[in-house]
Amino acid sequence: MLKIRLPRDVANAIADACRRAGTRETGGMLFGEHVGPDDFRIVEATVEGMGTLAGFLRRVGAALLRLESFFRRTRRDYQRFNYLGEWHSHPSFALQPSTIDDATMFDIVNDPETEARFAVSLIVKLDDNELAGAAFTYYPPNEREATELLFEA
Ligand SMILES: [Zn+2]
Known about the structure:
The chain is α/β, with parallel strands linked by helices. It is 30% helix and 40% strand.
């Protein structure tokens, strides 16, 4: 099982985006650092705005610019720093992927352009103003796996 570490500063940024979005969904991309076998730390979460997960992915132009800026900052050390997946909020329902969420993530891992071996979907919500989350990893062609999510201090 993959392990995903969510550091406090990234969790705070995601929680702030959820507060701003209120009852609407929000989300963006996740960039990660490979810290060990099957072990990744989220180093950055972009906030793409409101809408559905599929909606975020349609804004491909903006997303590619952010990818490029991330790779420049991490000196193109792709083995260590890379695209990890997507996050989005479920403000008023369970931390479980919807049918559309699953379809969107399988589109990403099966897209020959992305060359992703896997992608993580982080689903979050504010629970009494505290960030709660659940993570799922998608593998081509159609495997979804529960993923350990560690909130770091
Ligand atoms: Zn969803």
